Amino acid sequence: MFKLLLLTTLSLSSYPTLFASGLQGSNSSIALLASFNDSTDKPDSRVVNGREGFKNLFVENSLTTNVAVKLNPMAVSFVEGYVKSHTTRLTNMKAWGKPYFDMMEGVLTQYNLPAELKYLAVIESQLKSGAVSWAGAVGPWQFMPGTARGLGLRVNKKHDDRRDYIKSTHAAAKYLTGLYNIYNDWLLVIAAYNGGPGAVNKAISRSGSRNFWELQRFLPAESSNHVKKFIATHYIMEGQGGLTTLTKGETDDYKLALPITAVATDKYSVISVSGRYSAQAIAQAIGMELSDFNYLNPGFDKSLAMGNNYNLRLPAGKLQVFQAQKPQILEQSIRMTLATAVQ
Predict the structure, then answer these.
(1) I need a surface site. Which of 39, 173, 257, 283 has the fewest CB within 10 A?
(2) Which pTM does this prediction carry?
(3) Is residue 258 very low, low, confident or very high in pLDDT (cuts 50, 70, 90)?
């Protein structure tokens, strides 16, 4: 029996009808495809790095993205059922599909995209080049004719590049990069890949949020399930979550929770502290916005209140100020704590 990894502090389909609803007619899609009119089989140098949002998560520009990430508890109930029903099939696919996965991973990394996006082709087509949806989407990445042509693929009576594994993977990489440049959030990218940017934009507008778990009920059910199936497929294939299974907010929190050696250290100084220090007292004493302090030091007050040591992270130059005023800051921290207790 598999064991799911839960993340309590942070916040996938029959052959899908890619872009069948909303994509071909949406303004954002038209503009997006227009940028690829001169597409070739080589990465477009104009494309912004699709992993820019994760740049501080990797050591020495590692291309490995399958890091241990716990699953969002909101996805667990769905994942449990999907894992139970599909583990055998997907486990077998890991063996026979390895040549396809290796190729896709190679193409995706050329575009600086997370290699785990290869699992999108699993839920799109089961890696089948001949897959055809009821709406006319074709190939391993399930492109509609207009979308494929907009990405530089030939689609006519004699040729259909949508069935070509390599060419269609290049096209998918270009499109995924374009979507990421719009949403900066992989869960929203996957939803838009299925239902079109128009559907995602509408859900954002109606929900007032860019967090998938908050706006999912405003998405078409197929698009919402597409995201969850991607998460579950990744879990089955890797035994864990990954960077593309997190919302942008969760990614930010995950980045801050990494060991200090895994993030950029030239801008920060780190010192281990213990005792009854308070975030507010430290921020006031060193001339720092409390929100900025909490961003660098999530859970600071709670951790110290539990008697734990904490690796305090401060902007370079602020550490000396903190060390020079430690007695006064500790005294002020205790005063603030007592005042709060009295209230």
Answers:
(1) 257
(2) 0.57
(3) low
- Residue 142: the pLDDT is 93
Torsion angle of the four alpha carbons 200, 203, 208, 213, in this order, in degrees rounded to the nearest 10: -80
How far CA 189 is from CA of 109, 172, 179, 193, 211, in Å, comes to 17, 12, 6, 6, 12
Residue 241 has a pLDDT of: 58
Judged by average pLDDT, the poorest of 242-251, 284-293, 299-308 is 242-251
Cα-based distances in Å from 83 to 98, 145, 294, 308: 20, 33, 37, 37
Question: Domain boundaries in the chain?
Answer: 27-255, 265-342
CATH 1.10.530.10 fits 27-255, yes or no: yes
Q: What average pLDDT does range 244-252 have in this prediction?
A: 65
Other beta carbons within 10 angstroms of residue 91's beta carbon come to 11
How far apart are the C-alpha atoms of 126 and 124, rounded to whole Å? 6
